[in-house]
Amino acid sequence: MSGPLAGVSADPPLRSGDEPAEASLIRNTIFSRYTNILLAFVPLGLAAGAFSQPAVAVFALNFLAIVPLAPLITLSIDELLSGVGHNFGKLMKPTSGNLVEMIVGITALAHGKPLVARSSLLGSILAYALLFLGSNFFVAGYDKKEVTFEKTVTNTLSSWAMVVSFSLIVPTVVSVTSHRTDAHGRAPRDIQALSHAISIVLIITFVVYLKVRTWFLDTNANRDHDATHENCQRAPGANSRSRAGLRAAAFVLFCAMLSAILCASHLIGSIDSLAKVLGTNETFISLVLIPPISYSARCFNTIALARGHRMDTVIRFIIHSILQLTTLLIPLMVLLGWLFKEPFSLDFGLFQATVFFTSIFTMSSITQHGKSNYFYGIMLIGTYILVAVAFHIRPGVWEEFVLPGLDRRRIAHGLYSIESTTGEFGGFEFFKAAPTCSA
């Protein structure tokens, strides 16, 4: 088979009606990548979650299980899209690379953890803009004076990323400046409505972006997506796919999706206990530890491209991934939360919104000149490490207790409740001066 599902297999083409061909294609797909050896962790992770093993074991095993499932899902979707029509396949193919982030986000929403869903997506954006870009700058330029890349398209994409990031933090700015949260720290209805409106607009712009990408960036964009996502190329002259190949792709996709959903469910369910064991907060786990599930399999491919003097491809892939997250997945999570009556607003909180916007601004500033060096990479990697440490030492309780409004009345009410129940808190005169809010 000559499609991406076949990976690096050198098997000759098989007849579409030959039943052994399907088994051969599935086998070749599973054994086509070295990372697929981690598929052995799928039953281990599911068993650990089913039998209530320690949180560290459940999280680690299911984390390792999802890592190889991400490229399998992407390969299978790309293969199926190749059989549904050339134009439609080109239009939808760029969206297939972030399906694991969507699975994790929806699973977190199903577990009643919208903060985890939002933080995991934000963590992926920060990783792409700082860690991912910095690592490739360092690898591409550590033995060179300067690394150059085409800046026209890069500047266009990074400028759009800046506009989108500003749109996403508008609800946070409104919440901070109006000092408005409800008694339970949730965004009020007008912030939710604003989030819904922004999400709809961003999804529309994403659809337009896909159309523009198909019209004007056809050759380069599709080549970049194939090379960076899966490190496998479509064989020359392959214009059609056998029915056996499509059936094999559908079977692999079903199994990989089901496994990813089950593993993600156990992984999300272990976060509370894991935070207590590690002495950290849920925000750090969801923002720093969960995102590598999706992008770790792509690291080696992009690093190889960076060393091969293809920084244009790498940078466009990074910005494309960020745009998919900001204009499709985050808005989609907001609308799904609206549909399932699970509040999911774009009120990130003052600290997260600041880090998010600053990271996108830094990425845009560094890429606008069309040249870089290894020192830029070190700075970006160091910035990501500092951000990760900041989220680790920042008490997670304040993320829920004092949301961006920093309402003094809510602080007073909380501290007054502590004093009235434990009798261990004093020095309360400043807060008592403000009227308390209702529970």
UniProtKB/TrEMBL annotation:
One of its GO terms (cellular component) is fungal-type vacuole membrane. Pfam families: Na_Ca_ex (PF01699). It is a multi-pass membrane protein. It is found in: Endomembrane system; Vacuole membrane. Keywords: Antiport, Calcium, Calcium transport, Ion transport, Membrane, Transmembrane, Transmembrane helix, Transport, Vacuole. GO terms for biological process: intracellular calcium ion homeostasis. Residues 55-214, 250-390 form the Sodium/calcium exchanger membrane region domain. The chain crosses the membrane at residues 34-51, 57-77, 121-139, 160-179, 191-210, 248-271, 283-305, 317-340, 346-367, 374-393. One of its GO terms (molecular function) is calcium:proton antiporter activity. It comes from the Eukaryota. InterPro entries: CaH_exchang (IPR004713), CAX-like (IPR004798), NaCa_Exmemb (IPR004837), NCX_ion-bd_dom_sf (IPR044880). Belongs to the Ca(2+):cation antiporter (CaCA) (TC 2.A.19) family. Has a role in promoting intracellular calcium ion sequestration via the exchange of calcium ions for hydrogen ions across the vacuolar membrane. Involved also in manganese ion homeostasis via its uptake into the vacuole. This is Vacuolar calcium ion transporter.
